[in-house]
Amino acid sequence: MTYTAAVSGATGYAGGEVLRLLCGHPDIEITTVAAHSSAGRRLGELQPHLHALADRTVVDTTAENLAGHDVVFLALPHGQSAAVAAALPEGTVVVDAGADHRLTSASAWEKFYGTEHAGTWPYGLPELVTDPRGGKQREALRGATRIAVPGCYPTGSLLALAPALAAGLVAPQDLVVVSASGTSGAGKAAKPHLLGAETMGGMSPYGVGGGHRHTPEIEQGLAAAGGQDVTLSFTPTLAPMPRGILTTATAVLRLGIDDARVREVYDAAYGDEPFVHVLPEGQWPTTKSVQASNHVALQLAVDHHAGRLVVSTVLDNLTKGTAGAAVQSLNLALGLPETTGLTGQGIAP
Ligand SMILES: NC(=O)C1=CN([C@@H]2O[C@H](COP(=O)(O)OP(=O)(O)OC[C@H]3O[C@@H](n4cnc5c(N)ncnc54)[C@H](OP(=O)(O)O)[C@@H]3O)[C@@H](O)[C@H]2O)C=CC1
Ligand SMILES: CC(=O)N[C@@H](CCC(=O)OP(=O)(O)O)C(=O)O
């Protein structure tokens, strides 16, 4: 069976990556490409890498234009997708790359996003360990008709720390995550601090001091994995590269946990995962290895001097960090093989 799909936000980075992946998906037919200010324009002008779709005309994001599809992807600015989704029939599978439906706590949403909470949808990170018994998030995605795709920083952070918390290897307090993201994470809209002259050849932190809106999203997933509240200090940084996120997470190890036990827990969590790979001991991940792939590469070490577990992950913010997670979750929702239309192979150099 072929499913018809509309992609709204088709002219942006996230929507463009969804379209790129859907072009290689055997069970999906892209029938509508929608956006807003660029309605009426030829997609080829705005997404010149999407050759197969170059002659499509962008339509406006309206309930009428999105109606009648089996699947609707939303890749809109935060706060825009809730109203659009509410106008779609319950049977339509809606996959939202934005943040609107990720958080379970209305007060956390209001604090970090400043608008009314729109509700919570199943979280689109199939490999996430969701409880101390080692359950995985993919079970909540099978047959789902609404999917909230994770933020790109939370994907690498959650995959880094959830197995350790679920297995009780580390204390739930004093979790520290520092991530470096490529500039595409900020979207296409022109912003002075993202000009090439500002970002090339340098790095800088932002959202420091617990102010980044991904802090509650990461804490939410880690608290579920460990079965208790967690405290996280999260610091994002902007790196001079178009795509990619390197996350380094550390946590206080519980007494008596050695290197072998840590590796055993991560091998058990991810050994059968098609898109999360624990690297051989001593090989540390590089963002270049996962460009344009749906892969997350992970390495860990025990810092005996500081008594902390150190876990690093890399992913492509637009692929596994957004569009790949969206397609992988959609596959589960539709009952298709989870890897359909996705590759774990990157590009090089
Ligand atoms: N970039 C990333 O790495 C990630 C992004 N996301 C999420 O995906 C979403 C899109 O991000 P991104 O692609 O980076 O952003 P971009 O700024 O690159 O693209 C935004 C898209 O939304 C459309 N749009 C803007 N305003 C409206 C509106 N009022 N109604 C309908 N469409 C509108 C734009 O269309 P037009 O230009 O025609 O106005 C454009 O297609 C965000 O919620 C973001 O958080 C999630 C994970 C990672
Ligand atoms: C570099 C950069 O600006 N990154 C974005 C995160 C983008 C992302 O993936 O998250 P959302 O889906 O929640 O927008 C930021 O810090 O807001």
Automatic annotation (TrEMBL):
Q: Among its keywords, does the record have Iron? A: no
What is this protein called in UniProt?
N-acetyl-gamma-glutamyl-phosphate reductase
Record-annotated active site = C152
Please give a single GO biological process term from the UniProt record. Answer: L-arginine biosynthetic process
Identify the GO cellular component terms for this protein. cytoplasm
Kindly state which reaction or reactions the protein catalyses: N-acetyl-L-glutamate 5-semialdehyde + phosphate + NADP(+) = N-acetyl-L-glutamyl 5-phosphate + NADPH + H(+)
Q: What is its EC number?
A: 1.2.1.38
Residues annotated as signal peptide: none
Return the broad EC class.
Answer: oxidoreductase
UniProt lists the family membership as follows: Belongs to the NAGSA dehydrogenase family. Type 1 subfamily.
Taxonomic lineage is: Bacteria, Bacillati, Actinomycetota, Actinomycetes, Micrococcales
